[in-house]
Amino acid sequence: MSGFGGGRVALVTGAAGTMGYATAQMLTAEGFAVALADIDAARLQPMANAIGGHAFAFDVADPEAAEAGYREIVKALGPISVLVNNAGILSNNKAAETTPAEWRKVMAVNLDSAFYLSRLALPGMKTQRFGRIVNTCSLAMKSGGLTAGTAYTTSKGAMQALTFSLARESASFGVTVNGIAPAYVKTPMVTEQLTEEQRQALLKQIPVGRFCEPEEFAHCVRFFLSPLSGFITGEILDLNGGLHFD
Ligand SMILES: NC(=O)c1ccc[n+]([C@@H]2O[C@H](COP(=O)([O-])OP(=O)(O)OC[C@H]3O[C@@H](n4cnc5c(N)ncnc54)[C@H](O)[C@@H]3O)[C@@H](O)[C@H]2O)c1
Q1: Ligand 1 centre from 88 Cα, in Å?
Q2: Cβ(111) – ligand 1 distance below 6 Å
């Protein structure tokens, strides 16, 4: 088996989406046994089949469904060594336009799901004395919502705090917890939903002059999973083409 995965089990949420799927592809290429989790069962199954991964359709934002899905994965594939908390929904509404229901929904998908799955995965990772958790954050959280609305921005800011908190509590067990803060990844929003004029206006703001490829996101995940990255924990890696430095 090629790559550094060595048959270890990796779970990616939001795996039927652009960035999650690129990550699942990278993980299978690196020799991981990959569980692709997504709420969209119809899209997920053929995508998982195409890369030799394993599809598990469930709602990561529902604590009972998340636990049942997690247990099904462990039963089918074995203990999870890598968890990529990537499922997310976008809301561009600022505070006054955000309803309480929308706020709760965004928090549930973007933040609560990462907590539910991390708390399930950590005991096994600690027993193995090896684990890697990678959380998908966003430039939005560092920029006061430059690229998104209030609920989304807050959910990603809390994702950073969750990353730091989990990193500290699990560091002595061989488990690292890190995050990635992307901006303007080339997803259907960019390629299909924007007009050419809107695309050009956005490109002008990005110093490197192009959008981020989903494979570049997957490469950041790979970096955190590498055996040589075991000393890096509680790091948020910027992936923003020079839009923001910190
Ligand atoms: N695209 C960008 O430029 C960008 C920038 C910063 C951060 N992000 C973050 O990256 C992640 C992936 O984004 P993407 O652009 O690939 O989006 P996407 O919409 O292509 O993928 C998200 C996936 O999550 C799934 N999902 C949604 N709710 C779910 C639930 N309750 N349970 C299980 N699965 C669920 C969707 O079905 C979808 O397949 C998200 O967390 C997003 O907030 C994206």
Answers
A1: 4
A2: no
